[in-house]
Amino acid sequence: MTGIATVIENKDLLIGGHWVPPVSGRTIASIDPATEEVWATVPEGAGPDVDRAVAAARDALRGPWSRLTATQRGRLLHVLSDLLERDAERLGRIETMDNGKPLRDTVGEVRRAVQWLRYFAGAADKVEGTVVPYKTDAHAFTRVEPVGVVAAITPWNSPISLYSWKLGPALAMGNTVVLKPSELTSVSAIELGRLVVEAGFPGGVVNIVTGFGRDAGARLVGHPGVDKVSVTGSYPTAQAIMRAAADGLKRVSFECGGKSPHIVFEDADLGRAVTVATHSAFRSTGQSCSLGSRLFLQRHIYPEFLDALVRRTERIRVGMPLDPATHIGPHTSAEQLAKTHHYLDAGRAEGGRIVTGGGRPEGLDKGYFVQPTIFEGLGNRSTVAREEVFGPVLTVIPFDDEEEAVRLANDTSYGLVAGLWTRDIARAHRVAARLEAGTVSVNTFRPVHWTLPYGGYKSSGLGRENGLAVLREYAEIKSVVIDYSDAEPDDPFAVA
């Protein structure tokens, strides 16, 4: 059962504070991944709609938005966060219908998005310029100003979370935004737009254009009226966007996924490590950029740990996402399910042994479901260990000593997050310093928080999200010098 009696029809885009139909008049069907049925539609925006949205964003940038103080901007973000909190259950249900995450996870994500917005609401009037000791007869200082119009492009795996990651700092710094969500999960973006209007943001500060990446997305990132592009997506997508943004030398920031190492040394608290390793591998049906998808176990503990890991994995309840008992739901799309099966086939072909999972859960005849799967016998250079599966597939690999663990962990083109387990504090510092990742956790995994900068090394991206560090991603620093000297200026062209 979908839990919704009729298809929800969303026909309008949010542009300039008004709900307007797309020029094409077309809509995109949203598929419930648990039932494979259409449950909602969203408007299919394209190039002309993007042009209107960017124009509205530029007008707002020069209009009433620019005359608000930073404190007033922060107050509006607080109002938006209160509205998200009020509607958390409803928005969570919408997100579950759209992308298949269990309801308890999506409601939790909405409530965490509330905290993200509140953090940046509080940060809005804490950003200050500096007085520079330039010379005694001049006043030199810096101004922190908005970049301008921001194109925010978000993926389908955690939509509402990532709306807050991008809107929070962009709006706190005084920018205006055109948001282009994934065409697979756009319903919550429309709902967010309604809350933006209810919160009282001036028209054009936040514009929402739903549509396909090849049309709306491509036009947005290459648009001459856009000053910055912020994208969460795949590495090939980031490459294409970077090329499109190059003509205007747009500011860009990317988070592009990972193939994260999770290292367990023999002196670790193995009980806690098994619990966290299971969750870090399979949460969100494996559809996360920061899974601990390469699990490295010191050889002495390998058999015992793997046995405990398999037992725990086999207790994961895969089921309908609206069922409170469900741990993980379906993939978000048929395409993603097919991709996971491709990697399962590749792992088998390369000599890997599936020790649990690999098939369709019993009793789930429809929907994009697959069992959590553990491979052993695959090396660190295997396809499954090298490429981002974006499904619930874990590769377990033994190692002998610290040096080998670090070498294996860093032998990847990605560098988003990494984790290690040890009771040796010297080893914790030593290994953390050597791991090539934007976030390294010890005796936990992937502590993502609004206060912690988050981003990647290597192919995992450019720039950072979250924390006060991200505010500079959405700012220009202007130096101003006021000379009040009475002395005659130097004249380099004076006649000798």
Automatic annotation (TrEMBL):
Keywords tagged on the record: Oxidoreductase
Task: Report domain Aldehyde dehydrogenase positions.
Answer: 19-480
* Pfam assignment, any one: Aldedh
> Where do the catalytic residues lie?
E255
User: Which ranges of the sequence are coiled-coil?
Assistant: none
Q: Which CDD domains match?
A: ALDH_DhaS (cd07114)
**Keyword check for Oxidoreductase:** yes
In its UniProt record, a GO molecular function of this protein is: oxidoreductase activity, acting on the aldehyde or oxo group of donors, NAD or NADP as acceptor
The entry's family comment says: Belongs to the aldehyde dehydrogenase family.
Q: What is this protein called?
A: Aldehyde dehydrogenase
Organism expressing this protein natively: Actinomadura rubrisoli
The top of its lineage is:
Bacteria, Bacillati, Actinomycetota, Actinomycetes, Streptosporangiales
